Amino acid sequence: MFEKFTLEQFVTDAASAKPTPGGGSVAALTASCGAALMAMLCNLTAGKKGFENFFDEMSRLAEKYSAAAKDFLADIDRDVEAFGCYMAALRLPKDTEAQKAERAAALVAAADVATNAPLSVAVKAEALLDDAAYILKNGNPSAVSDGVIAVRLLAAAVDAALCNVEINLPYIKDVEKRAAVKSMADGLKKSAGQKAENILKGIEL
Fold first, then answer.
1. How far is Cα 120 from Cα 50, in angstroms, rounded to an integer?
2. Contact present, 14 and 26 (Cβ < 8 Å)
3. What residues in the chain have per-residue pLDDT under 50?
4. In terms of pTM, does the model score above 0.90?
5. pLDDT tens, position by position, 192-205
6. Given 40, 114, 142, 164, which residue has the most CB atoms within 10 angstroms?
7. What's the first-to-final CA gap in the chain, in angstroms?
8. Do residues 40 and 163 lie in contact, with contact meaning Cβ atoms separated by under 8 Å?
């Protein structure tokens, strides 16, 4: 639903008292914008005079980042659906022992969904930083600022998405799973920050 909204509609709803779109959806949109800008830099390089040696690789990367940008838009709705799943579980009746057990199980399942949605965004955004150094080094200098912004947006998207992961951790009742998710989130946050710093080191605008 939200991926089809105009920018004005999305921002208006995000600024309203409505629970969605929230931070997870905005994190996904941020990742989408970062991937789109990286694709733009690739497209402004492939086929341009003076960059003939990079045509094949830049064309491939343009397709990769364009596809990622669209996938992140779908993550906006996935995040909204995850929130809806959790709210639906909260509203389940709890009058009898059987109902309480059913509600508790639904909340556990919903917590997993609500955690996995932003975690997926973080994983994908962090991975997209892997090709960024190559793109910025060999891309069209006239669009290097767009590449820099893309790197910063992707790193910010990782950090933002992980905020939603961290806030959901207490609702994961399986102690080992909770520890594994936290370890993964910590690793992603550290890795994205280091990658972005290394990529942008020495780049002059």
1. 38
2. yes
3. none
4. yes
5. 999 999 999 978 77
6. 114
7. 38
8. no
